[in-house]
Amino acid sequence: MFELVSLIVLGAFAGTLAGLLGIGGGAVIVPILILILQSHSEMPSEHLMHIAIGTSLATIVLTAISSIIAHQRHGAINWQVVKRLAPWIVIGSLSGAILAGVLSNLSLKVIFIIFLFIIALQMIFGKPPAPNRQLPKTLGLGIAGTIIGIVSSLVGIAGGSMTVPFLVMCNIPMRNAVATSAACGFPIALAGVIGFIFTGWNTTGLPTSSMLGYVYIPAFLTITPLTLLFAPLGAKLAHSIPVNTLKKVFALFLIALSMKMLLELAMR
Fold first, then answer.
1. Measured between alpha carbons, how far is 29 from 32 in angstroms, rounded to an integer?
2. Rounded alpha-carbon distances, angstroms, from residue 151 to 97, 144, 238
3. DSSP classification of residue 129
4. How far apart are alpha carbons 180 and 89 in whole angstroms?
5. Residue 153 in contact with residue 94, Cβ under 8 Å?
């Protein structure tokens, strides 16, 4: 019962923040899901990060579809950019999932802690980059897309924190950059979750009745509909609440989460 209530609260929280602050749910889902799974007696501690990241990517698959539909209604997605960037993102995301499969729980946790710190600092001090170049040719686009895919898959996010600044820097208007990034989140999540299912398929010690590779099915089935339900609420609140102040508060929350994870590592 504790786990179910915790997952319900997590789904509602992640969905509201996604709509309110325009962030993906992965930055919230992964660290809180780890805390929830630590109390699960059948979850092997050496694979908690893999399970949290794989499950986060699974939830993003469906929430990304919802986001694409919403942005497409406003005609804001640059599909030409998506078509050029998506193949490289898929390659990177699959590579990141395979890499995660050979990394230890400790290594993944360190990578995620560093990522949380960077995201938090970006939310506190970051400004949109100046648009000073055009979209690169195939090689440059391939490098950027592959890096975005690898990092996103390693930490269980849709990649917006990297894709949006990259597209803005390449002279794509912010509105279109956000919408196009949302469209790119779908191949990131889909390729990543396929990779995490594959790498976790024959892993011993997992509760097989509730797992699909590294995807924890009860968490996926609970979190996903709630993120879809609460994201519109967050979007409505964004028009009546000072979002910039909330971003700084949320950044402090991310720092607190990462410090807790860091403290746990130090006490080992």
1. 6
2. 10, 11, 28
3. P
4. 13
5. yes
Task: Write the burial class of residue 72 (CB in 10 Å: 0-12 exposed, 13-18 middle, 19+ buried).
Answer: middle
Any residues with CB less than 8 A from the CB of 143 and at least 6 apart, and which? 88
Q: What does the chain come to in residues?
A: 268
Sign of CA dihedral 202, 151, 30, 114: positive
Distance CA 68, CA 40 (A): 34
**Which amino acid, 59?**
T
- The domain ranges of the chain are 2-266
Q: Are 264 and 49 in contact (CB under 8 A)?
A: no
Torsion over CA of 169, 171, 175 and 176, rounded to 10 degrees? -110
How confident is the model at residue 49, as a pLDDT? 93
Give me the residues of the chain with pLDDT under 70, please: 21-24, 128-129, 238-239, 243, 268
What is the structure's pLDDT at 63? 87
Q: What is the pLDDT of residue 14?
A: 86
pLDDT for the residue 125: 81
Q: Which of 179, 131, 136 is nearest to 158 (CA)?
A: 179
d(CA 16, CA 226): 9
Residue whose tokens read 């396929």: 194
Scan for tokens 């360190």, then name that residue.
110
Could you write out the three-class secondary structure of 166-230? HHHHCCCCHHHHHHHHHHHHHHHHHHHHHHHHHHHCCCCCCCHHHEECCEEHHHHHHHHHHHHHH
CA distance 22 to 72: 16
Other C-beta atoms closer than 10 Å to the C-beta of 106 total 12
Position 238 scores a pLDDT of 66
